[in-house]
Structures are given as C-alpha cells and as structure tokens.
Specification:
heterodimer; A: mainly alpha; two-stranded antiparallel sheet; 13 helices; 2 strands; 73% helix; globular; B: alpha/beta; Rossmann fold; 6-stranded mixed β-sheet; 18 helices; 22 strands; 34% helix
Chain lengths: 355, 500
C-alpha cells in the first residue's frame, strides 16, 4: 500500500516538475497556471458542481469498460457507443409523448439501448466471425460520428425542426424542461441527481462483479478461457453480455450528458461526445479496473477538464496546457503499469525458484 | 555454490565434485535445486556466491558461450531444434563463418560412429521421433568436444529401449574418451543403473553422497525424501492389497466409460486419435501407457470438453455423451486431473476457494448471489481433508506450490463424486511424498467405485496402480493386458510401436 502511494506521489511530482519547466520555458508562470486549474475545478464557488457534472459520464463509461475488460475483451469504442446512445436518447425525447419523469426514464433507457446496440455489433462480429473487437469498436467510432452527423442534418431524425435562428448550426431540439434531469444544490454547488445514480450504479456493478455468480463466471472467462470451457461456462454468452453492458453504460453516459444539460444545454450537437468516451477509457485504466477507484479517478480527470476552462483566461497558449494535461495523465497511468510489472516479476521469481 | 530467488534459497552452499571419466548422478525431487545448480554451471544463472573450478583453476561462467569455451556442454530436457531443417543443418546452428555443408555432414557422421549414435545427417528433424531428436541434441553438444556433459532429465521423453541406448552411448563417451557426465534426474532406477557416484540434494542442499555400488533404491529414496519411504514391488502390492475392487469383466457389468471408434482429426488433417476403442469398468484403474505425444493429451482434452471428435462415440454408463458441448462431460460425471493444470485445471489469479468452487458454483450460491460463508466452509473442509498447504481459503492460487495446486485439483474433482476420473500424468513434477499421496488417493477413489483412467508416460506409475494396461501409440490402442501379464519389456516395445 505504501508502495502504491509513493509511486503515485513520485510520478505526480515528476509530472509537475516537467510541466513547470515547460510552462516557464514558454514564458508563463507556473503558479498562475496551477492556480487557474484549481480555481476552475474546485476552488471557485460553484465549480464543484460543474466538475461533478463531468465526473458522472466519465465514471459511467469507466465502469462499463471495467466489465468488458474483466471478461477479457478490449472495448475501445466507448466514444462511439456514447454518441449513439446520446443520439437515440435525443430521438426518443422528441418522439415519445407522456409525462416528464416517464419520458426522462425512457430517454435514459434509449441511451442504454443505443450504446448496447453499438457495442453489440462489435461483440457479434467477434463471437460469430472472430473479428477482433479492438478493431471493430475503434472503427465503429468514426461510423457513429458520421451517422450522428448525418442525423443532425435531417429534421426527421435529429435536427431541430424549428431552426428559427436560420444559422448553419446543426443542433437538435432542446429537451423540454420536464424531461431534464432534476438538479439539487449542496453546499453552494449545483449538480444533477445523476451523481447519486452514478454512485449507486458503480457500487452495484462492483458488488455484482465480486459477489454474484454472473461476476464469477465472467471473471473465470477473463482469466482462463479453457478452464471456463471445461466447467461449462460459455465464453460467447459471458462475452456478449459483458459487451452489451459495456456499450450500454457508455450509451447511458451519453443520455446523462444530454439530460444533465452541462454539455450543450440539453441539445445534441455535432461533436457532442467531446472525448468523454476516450477519457472514460483512461479512467478505467488508471483505476486499475477496480470499481471503487473509479469515482475518485473520474473526479481527477473531470477536474482537469473543468480547470482547463479557466486556463484560457490566463492567456497561456492552449497547447501548453494540453501538454500539461497529458503529463498529468501519464503520471496517473504509470504507477499501475509499474505495479503490474513488479507483481509479474515477483510471481515469476516465486515460480522460478521452485525449479 | 549459493543462489536465492527472492526469499527462497534454491541452492544453499552446495559443494559438488565431478571426476574425470565418471557418470555422476545428481538426484533430488522437484525443487531440490539440481536444475538451478546445473544452470549455474552452464551460465544460464549467475550464482550469488561460491566458486567454480575447472581442472583446479577458478573460473567465472557468465553465459553459455563462456561455459562452452571451458568445455562444459548441456543437453536440455526441452529441445531447441528447428523442425523444418535437417539434422546437419540443426547441428550447424550457431556456427560462425562460412557454412560448409560437407564439413558439417562429415562431422556428424564422424560423431555418430565414435559414439554409436546412428543418425542420418540429411533426415528432416520434423520426421524424427523423439529419441532420435534427442540424439541430434546430443550431437550438437558433443561437437563442441565438451569435457563435461550435463544431461537434464534425459529420459522423460524416451521409451525404455531408447533410454538404454542413450546410457550405453554415455558409457562409451565416458570410458573411451575420459569425459565426464553429470546426469540430473529424479529417477532412482536410472541412478542405480547408470551412475558411478550419486549426489543427493534436498531443499537446496546436498544431503548425501554415495558411491552407486554401495547403495540400493531404498537408501536413495530415504535420502531424497528424508524419511522412510515404502517402495512397493508388484508382489508386495498384491499381498498388502486387501481392498475389494470390482474389475470390469467385459461381459457383465456396464462399463462406466467407453470409447467406440473415436476419431479426432487435427486442423492439419492428420488423425490424432484413430479408431480408438476401449472400456473402463466400475472401480477399475485402467492404465494408458505410452510415450508422450501419441494421443494422450487429446483424450484428456476430449473428456474435458476442450476438443471435438470427428467420429465415433463416447459413452458414460451406457449413454452417449456429446463432449463437444462445454460442461457436458462434467455433467455426465467425468472428472479430470489435467496434464497441465495451468492450462485447464486451475486459475492462478483466483483464490483457493474460488478454484474449488469451479465445478459447482451454483451450489455455493442462492438466487445468483454467492454465499461467501458456504464457500469458505466448503473450502476449509476440502483443505483439511486433502491436507492442502496454504494460508487459507482466500490464498491466491499462485502462492501454492505445484504439489499443493495439484491437491486442489484432486480435491475438487473427487469432491464432485464423479463416475469416471481421468488422471493425466497426475504425479508429474511432484516429489516422492506427494506422489505417494496421489497414488493413495487414486486407489481410494477406485475403491469407492470410481473408474479411473490413468494416462501416464511413467511406467512405474502404471505398473504400481493399474489393474489393466493399455498401450497407446499414434492414436491407437496397440496392446492390452492385465497387470499380471504385464512386463516392462512388453510395454516398452508396444510403446515404441512394435506390434506384439
């Protein structure tokens, strides 16, 4: 445990030092940059709410990724699955009649369905024709992006029919007020109740993975497919379910982004996913595929994003801040990698000594 | 010589002397440290402390090339041959400078004659049986004209006849040319038959040094294990065996397992199992003898649900079982102790309890939720019953020693109360104590009515346990006999492909 903390501190310090050098070399002042990042994410009043708003979809994508990773699959298409989920959610919001709260639930379910269908495509190809899912999920991201882009051009699909503004912006209809996610205010910070939904989902999934028969079978498949087969556990069934769940969570993240309003003011816009899918994947990696670690790690990544919003006002060239962000990401990714290598060496040494 | 790997001392202040013109046996169980010791001599492992003297001069052996220049050569247990090349091409691997085809071929021919190791230099290695492949390895080693030859477990892949040939050649090498041989093995009979002196290692230290003519198997075994070990001969076995066993009489009771004309084709098209037919009775131990690679692995995989057959039928208690459906073999009552537990027997990353639960996870849960307490109790019971040494049900599997991992597999399979138990190379890699335990357990299981298919390339094991013996060669049964009819010679010849 001490080792892990020391590794993180060490890498973090190294990242900060290198960033400091870069910032100073560009002619800016490191303390200003650091201050702006902190201000934007947590220090200024009300910023916590915004950071939580970004944490929620990140955490959702991450927990979905953990499920697919545990079964041994490589799903890197969350960006696309999120987009398709958000698109289907938008479609549902404009087509489904009914009382607000009911429609809200349907919107969320549509998000899940959209994401699940998208990942299901890749899963199906993998288990039906052995196409590696690392390729299909990735390629399906650009397919999703183009499809949604197309949908945003057509009023019968996603485009806002009342394009009163007459400009070229391709956006969807805005969600009516009663189908938006309710917000609460705690300690001066306003955020949606999806935060509580996210926490509940993560705890539930974490529990299911470690304490249920389903989680057990999934984990066996992930560790050793031949053992799974020997004991009657179907690799394709477990894998397909995990893949659908993984996409479903990403899609749900998209729907939450839509109904939360923090991203495009309750509209679907082009480029809606704003890399939440990619960063969510990073969150899962940094959290070392542990469900409980997802929330704090997602919060850190969310802080980077909301904090960088304040950086622009310090006048520092954006590219420098991107480099700083990248370094901090590396600092968070290296410790698990190092720990993995060390554990591997220890296990090999223990096994090798029994010669 | 000393070497530690982490917290474990693989070799602890080991002293050993090998004289010119002798075959020196190094005997010990798995984990005794003999392989590590040899690896230090050949430069694959760097010692932590100690010194090596060759012909009285202190040397440093940093890699196999350095070892070769000092005249030390090793024939490894696992060959490094390129199947697509011929014998002489493999022998030439590692040469520098211009390749002289005739030069190498002549060298091979010359070595063949000198040491009585007949081989065709132009033969393709892919076509050679294991015994001849080993010859190529030996020729590769001899070509460097080593003064000291190290052999690591050379007979694990040979028939008894091939082993005899090998040792005859070694004797020739040693006597004619005054070279020395270090023979690393865990087999007592080899030590007694071939060596001049024996050094016995246990847990990283040397425990005994003997002149071979002054010892017998019992003394060697005791030294190896550190306690009195009963070595049972065939007569002893029939006398002490008072347990009732129901042996299939062929026409009476229903066999628990039957293979009828089973055929398994590999992806390249060749037959791995060819019209394989046999039956196993209740409480019978059927020994399937054969050199590795003649289809034994396929049979175990088939009965584990890991392979599909292309023809024939498999029956359990008279009903056909479709083993291609994952888990159907297990549901039909077939338990398997696989040859390679890491491949299909255990999950190293999971805990002991989780591994024990593999055969019936739903039995440990209600409404899809795993009952932790029930599982822990089940695991604790099995740990005690089978004396599995571990820190507890939550111990990660990879922390257990090989012998204890094998006990977990055994515990799980027997606890499932199977109809048939397939034990594939069950005592491979285990020390004498663990071997005794495993053999006892298998006998007990047979005594309670389980039909046991014992697949093994260790003749001793088969002769020790089996009621009836089959010999498998190239995917077919080439011979069948009862235990009383069996002789080493008969089985050995059948294993090598003779038709009796």
């Amino acid at each position: 445990m001490v080792e892990v903390v020391a590794l993180y501190l060490g890498c973090g310090l190294a990242a900060l030092v290198i960033s400091g050098i870069i910032v100073e070399a560009v002619g800016a002042d490191w303390s200003t940059v650091g201050g702006a990042l902190l201000d934007g994410s947590v220090r200024k009043p009300g910023r916590w709410g915004g950071t939580i708003g970004v944490t929620v979809p990140l955490a959702m994508v991450a927990i979905g990724t953990i499920v697919s990773t545990k079964v041994g699959l490589v799903n890197i298409g969350q960006e696309g699955q999120l987009l398709v989920g958000a698109a289907l959610a938008t479609f549902a919001s404009t087509r489904v009649p009914g009382p607000g709260p009911v429609v809200l639930v349907i919107i969320l379910l549509a998000g899940v369905a959209g994401g699940a269908i998208w990942s299901g495509l890749a899963g199906g190809l993998r288990y039906w024709r052995k196409v590696p899912e690392v390729l299909t999920t990735l390629l399906l991201v650009s397919v999703a992006s183009n499809l949604v882009g197309y949908g945003l051009k057509k009023p019968w699909l996603l485009l806002d029919a009342e394009a009163k503004r007459g400009n070229r912006n391709l956006v969807s209809e805005q969600l009516p007020p009663d189908t938006r996610m309710p917000r609460i205010t705690l300690f001066g910070n306003e955020f949606t109740i999806s935060a509580f939904l996210a926490i509940a989902v993560i705890l539930l999934v974490g529990w299911m993975l470690s304490r249920t028969l389903w989680g057990y079978r999934l984990t066996v498949v992930g560790h050793n497919r031949r053992v799974a087969r020997r004991f009657g556990i179907s690799e394709s069934v477990q894998g397909m379910v995990a893949m659908l769940a993984s996409g479903g969570f990403a899609g749900l993240a998209g729907a939450l982004m839509l109904t939360g309003g923090d991203f495009a003011n309750y509209r679907l816009v082009s480029g809606f996913s704003v890399s939440i899918g990619w960063v969510g994947l990073l969150v899962a990696l940094v959290a070392n595929n542990r469900a409980l670690a997802v929330i704090p790690v997602a919060f850190v990544f969310a802080s980077l994003r909301t904090g960088s919003g304040f950086l622009a006002s310090t006048g520092i060239e954006r590219r420098v801040t991107d480099v700083v962000q990248g370094l901090i990401v590396l600092a968070l990714l290296l410790p698990p990698a190092i720990m993995f290598i060390r554990e591997r060496r220890r296990a090999l040494a223990a096994a090798g000594s029994r010669v | 010589m000393s070497k530690r790997f982490g917290a474990v001392a693989a070799c602890d202040a080991v002293d050993i002397e090998i004289h010119r013109g002798e075959i020196h046996g190094i005997l010990g169980e798995n984990g005794a440290g003999k392989s590590t010791l040899m690896k230090m001599l050949i430069g694959l492992v760097v010692p932590d402390s100690g010194s090596i003297l060759v012909d009285g001069a202190s040397v440093r052996i940093t890699d196999p090339v350095a070892a070769a220049s000092l005249g030390i050569g090793m024939v490894h247990q696992h060959f490094s041959l390129v199947e697509a090349l011929t014998v002489w091409e493999n022998v030439a691997l590692g040469d520098t400078g211009r390749l002289s085809r005739s030069g190498v071929r002549d060298a091979v021919g010359d070595l063949s004659d000198r040491y009585g190791l007949r081989i065709d230099p132009d033969a393709l290695v892919a076509d050679l049986p294991v015994g001849l492949r080993q010859r190529v390895e030996i020729l590769k080693c001899l070509r460097r004209e080593p003064e000291i030859l190290i052999f690591d477990e050379p007979t694990s892949v040979l028939t008894p006849e091939e082993s005899d040939d090998l040792f005859r050649s070694l004797r020739g090498v040693v006597e004619q040319e005054g070279r020395s041989v270090a023979l690393v093995s865990h087999k007592l009979t080899e030590m007694l038959d071939v060596t001049d002196r024996v050094t016995i290692m246990r847990n990283g230290s040397v425990v005994e040094r003997f002149v071979t003519t002054e010892v017998d198997a019992g003394m060697l075994a005791t030294a190896m294990v550190g306690r009195d070990v009963r070595l049972r001969s065939a007569q002893e076995m029939s006398q002490s065996d008072t347990r009732e066993r129901v042996v299939a009489d062929g026409g009476g009771s229903l066999p628990v397992l039957e293979f009828r004309n089973v055929e398994v084709r590999e992806s390249g098209g060749s037959l791995e199992l060819d019209d394989l037919t046999f039956s196993l009775g209740t409480g019978e131990i059927l020994g399937m003898a054969g050199v590795e690679g003649n289809g034994q692995r396929v049979i175990a995989d088939l009965l584990s649900g890991l392979r599909n057959r292309s023809g024939g039928e498999i029956l359990v208690n008279g009903s056909v079982v479709d083993v291609s459906q994952p888990g159907s073999a297990m549901d039909a009552g077939i338990a398997v102790i696989p040859e390679d537990r890491h491949d299909s027997g255990i999950v190293l990353e999971m805990t002991v309890a989780e591994n024990l639960m593999l055969s019936d996870p739903s039995g440990m849960s209600s409404h899809g939720v795993i009952d932790g307490l029930r599982r822990e109790k089940m695991a604790a019971d099995l740990i005690e019953r089978f004396a599995i040494m571990c820190t507890g049900p939550d111990a990660p599997m990879w922390t257990l020693s090989g012998g204890n991992q094998q006990r977990v597999v055994l515990a799980r399979e027997i606890a499932a109360e199977p109809t048939v138990l397939v034990a594939a190379q069950p005592t491979r890699g285990l020390d004498v104590g663990a071997i005794e335990y495993m053999t006892d357990q298998l006998r007990q299981a047979a005594g309670s009515g389980v039909g046991i298919l014992l697949i093994s390339s260790e003749l001793d094991e088969i002769l020790e346990l089996a009621d009836r013996i089959l010999v498998i060669y190239r995917g077919q049964v080439t011979g069948e006999m009862t235990r009383s009819e069996a002789t080493r010679e008969k089985i050995g010849r059948l294993m090598g492909g003779d038709i009796l």
